[in-house]
Design brief:
The protein is of the alpha/beta class. The chain contains 16 helices and nine strands. A six-stranded parallel β-sheet has the order 4-5-6-7-8-9. It has a three-stranded parallel β-sheet with strand order 1-2-3. Helix 6 links the parallel strand 4 and strand 5. The relative contact order is 0.14.
């Protein structure tokens, strides 16, 4: 964790951070029980949360403390870094590591608590509702309740659920409900699924350094190539970390998708109505969470469109006020910088 060395400059836009994690203490108790009972065979979860919940390092203590706080600690950090508003989302893996009944119940509890916390600081916080993909019908109902009754601004899905991905049609009621209520799904990383984590874990590459991006980028491509956006053309999905590297692969993705479909090699890869890059530009928005790097931001704006790229900090996993100052100083027009920090988020999340 880094501290601010100099005051953050005043600017003519709001800084809205769009991928900011929180964790109710009650959820940590459930995680602790899962770890103690060894009731879930998930190497990624056991490794990551075993570290954070037993670690004594400054990083582990900062993350556990900050995740649970929606009051003084978090607001002070926001003030120190010049963040006007955070869009809060249940930290990964959220309820998706739990059994079905616990997940359904706790998602409702977490959403109620989040709405109450936002009501205490409505100018500083907005929120994404949690759902339990373990029960897609229940998840769809919770989207309706969270949007219409609680005023939440989108849906958080922490990638795979017990090694299953949303391209399976059994999960599509979640897409249908999000499209019907005109709210985005934020597809956030999870630790890689059991089938892909091995070589990453061996070298410590399973987390945010690489594994998160590989896992979530693959998930997005599964969704696109399964035809989800042909079925739900108005659906919006948000992904972080500069688009999990996908903007830089667009040329090859388009070329090889076309070639692979033509080859008839895979029954699961069928023709789509548009190119992969078209869905990335029209149905996907990205945030720069954890990537405070001007060249990457500008490239994504160039290939996806200036309206598709938004600011995020990735708090508390990445908290460095100097990164905010660096992005304030990007060589970019005032109009485009305001879209990046403020108005794109206001449009996508209907703030």
């Amino acid at each position: 964790m880094a501290e601010a060395n100099t005051p953050i400059a005043k600017v003519n836009y709001l800084r809205i951070a769009t991928e900011e994690a929180y964790c109710p203490p009650e959820m940590l108790k459930i995680y602790r029980k899962i770890l103690d009972d060894r009731s879930v065979d998930d190497p990624g979860f056991n490794t990551m949360w075993g570290f954070y919940m037993s670690g004594t390092s400054a990083r582990a203590r900062h993350i556990i403390t900050s995740l649970q706080d929606l009051g003084e600690v978090r607001l002070n950090h926001m003030n120190e870094s010049g963040i006007d508003k955070q869009i809060l989302a249940l930290t990964s893996p959220g309820v998706q590591i739990m059994d079905r009944d616990t997940a359904v119940s706790f998602a409702i509890t977490a959403n109620d608590q989040l709405a109450e916390d936002i009501a205490r600081n409505p100018t500083r916080f907005a929120g994404l509702l949690a759902v339990a993909p373990q029960d897609p019908a229940s998840a769809a109902r919770e989207i309706q309740r969270g949007v219409t009754k609680l005023g939440l601004k989108g849906v958080i899905v922490n990638s795979h659920t017990h090694n299953e991905y949303l391209d399976d049609p059994k999960f599509w009621p979640i897409f249908e409900a999000a499209e019907a209520h005109d709210v985005p799904i934020y597809l956030h990383p999870n630790t890689p699924s059991k089938g892909m984590i091995g070589p990453l874990l061996e070298r410590g590459l399973d987390g945010a350094i690489f594994g998160f991006g590989v896992e979530t980028g693959m998930h997005v491509l599964r969704i696109i190539t399964a035809g989800v956006f042909d079925r739900f053309p108005k659906l919006k999905i948000v992904i972080g970390h500069m688009g999990e590297a996908l903007p830089y692969w667009l040329f090859r993705l388009d070329y090889m998708h076309k070639a692979t479909v033509a080859s008839n090699r895979y029954d699961t890869m069928r023709p789509l109505q548009r190119k992969i890059s078209d869905y990335m530009r029209d149905n996907i928005c990205i945030t720069n969470s954890g990537v405070a790097w001007e060249p990457a931001i500008k490239f994504s704006q160039q290939v996806l469109g200036i309206d598709q790229v938004m600011y995020a900090m990735d708090y508390p996993y990445q908290y460095d006020p100097t990164e905010v100052a660096a992005l304030d100083n990007m060589a970019m027009s005032d109009e485009d910088k305001k879209k990046f920090f403020q108005t794109n988020a206001e449009r996508v999340f209907k703030l």
